Write a sequence for this structure.
């Protein structure tokens, strides 16, 4: 499940036509895939390791906190550099000059 | 059963890493390349955790946590450089 979602995120990274659409793949699908993988690892170590394993929650919390921040910084730098986009990208008229 | 599933997920994440590498090389603009690098960091965490599950040890979590931290800090630093032309003002 997690592997499928990570793969979907990277396919979206390759196939989307411009940067503002391309940002959606890694920020959403890959973060969800990593959360699924980390929960799988947590279940695995709780079963085969010694006792309940809670260290994976640390990594998944860190990823859930930092992925929106890095996405925000990336889109800010893209707007700052005026990356050209296709005509189908909506919301371009809401971009303000900084 | 579990070994087969882990091998399949290894193949999927490897394919995802190759796609990220293609976007990193081709990518028309600089933010595209930073985004591909950030995604490669995240997929590398997945690979390390899967390898730890395959080997049956939990030694690799500290390495995964370090890679997560380094990936976030480097992404923010490069974006600050793109925004202002300087990292620390």
């Amino acid at each position: 499940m997690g592997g499928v979602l990570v793969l979907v995120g990277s396919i979206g990274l390759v196939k989307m036509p411009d940067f503002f659409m391309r940002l959606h793949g890694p920020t959403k699908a890959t973060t969800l895939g990593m959360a699924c993988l980390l929960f799988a690892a947590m279940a695995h170590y709780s079963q085969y390791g010694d006792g309940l394993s809670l260290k994976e929650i640390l990594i998944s919390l860190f990823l859930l906190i930092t992925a929106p921040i890095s996405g925000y910084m990336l889109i800010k730098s893209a707007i700052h550099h005026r990356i050209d986009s296709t005509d189908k990208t909506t919301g371009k008229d809401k971009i303000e000059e900084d | 059963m579990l070994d087969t599933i882990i091998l399949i997920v290894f193949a999927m994440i490897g394919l995802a890493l190759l796609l990220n590498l293609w976007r990193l090389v081709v990518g028309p603009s600089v933010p595209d390349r930073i985004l591909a690098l950030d995604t490669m960091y995240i997929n590398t965490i997945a690979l390390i955790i899967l390898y730890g599950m395959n080997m049956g040890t939990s030694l690799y979590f500290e390495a995964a946590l370090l890679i997560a931290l380094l990936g976030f800090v480097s992404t923010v630093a490069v974006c600050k450089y793109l925004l202002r032309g300087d990292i620390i003002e």
